[in-house]
Amino acid sequence: MAEDVGAVRYVNSIVDRAVKENASDIHFDPEERGLRVRLRIDGMLRDVERPPLEIAPAVIAHLKILANLDISEKRQPQDGRLDLRRDARAIDVRVSTFPTIYGEAVVLRLLDRTQKPMTLTELGMNPGVATEFERLFRQPYGILLVTGPTGSGKTTTLNTVIHDIKTDEKNIITLEDPVEYRQAGVRHCQVNRKAGITFASGLRAILRQDPDVVMVGEIRDPETA
C-alpha cells in the first residue's frame, strides 16, 4: 500500500536525521489531527516535520513491527528493541509505546554502542568542578548520586566515572534499564522484569557478588533506595 511505503520512507528519514543530529530520543505523539514528531537534542525536545495525515497510523504500525511488538495490542504499553547501522555507527534502539486518548504514542531511545566514554572536561565541566567531582568519586567508600532531567547526561557522566576508576583489581557491576554503554572489564546487568530482575531484586543479588563498585541506573522505589 502507498501508506506503508510512505511510512517506511518517513521513519527512515527521521531516524537518519536523529542519528546525524545526535538526538537521544525520538517522540511520536498522536494528536487530534495528526502525529507530532520531536527529537530530543541536548536535553530539549525540538519539533521536526510531521508525516502526512493519511500515513500517520502506518508510521506507528511500522515502528511496532520493527520492534517486534504486537501491532494488534493498542490498549497496553509495550517495550521492544531493534538494532540499526548508520555509516560506521551501531545504534541500539529501545522502543516504548503508550496508549493515549488519540492513539498510541511511541518513543525511541537511541543508544550509540560505538560511542566511547568522554572525559569530564568533554562533558562540559569546568576544571574546578571536574577536580572536586573526581576527588569525590575516587573515595574508597560512599555513595554518589547523579540527578537531572531526561537527556541531561546522567548515564554518560556515570559511565565516564566507571571508565576512570575501573582496574583489574576492582569488581564493578552495573544494573541498568537499558544498558547504554558497554565497557570491557565491567559486568553489566540488564533489568528484566519478565525474568524477575528488577532494580530492587537485582541490587540484592549484586551485593552477594562481592562488588567493589555498584552503579544503579535508576532509583524507582523505596526498596531500591
From TrEMBL:
The keyword tRNA processing does not apply. Residues 207-221 form the Bacterial type II secretion system protein E domain. Transmembrane segments: none annotated. GO terms for molecular function: ATP binding; ATP hydrolysis activity. Keywords: ATP-binding, Nucleotide-binding. GO terms for cellular component: plasma membrane. Belongs to the GSP E family. PANTHER family: COMG OPERON PROTEIN 1, TYPE II SECRETION SYSTEM PROTEIN GSPE-RELATED. This is Bacterial type II secretion system protein E domain-containing protein. It comes from candidate division WOR-3 bacterium.
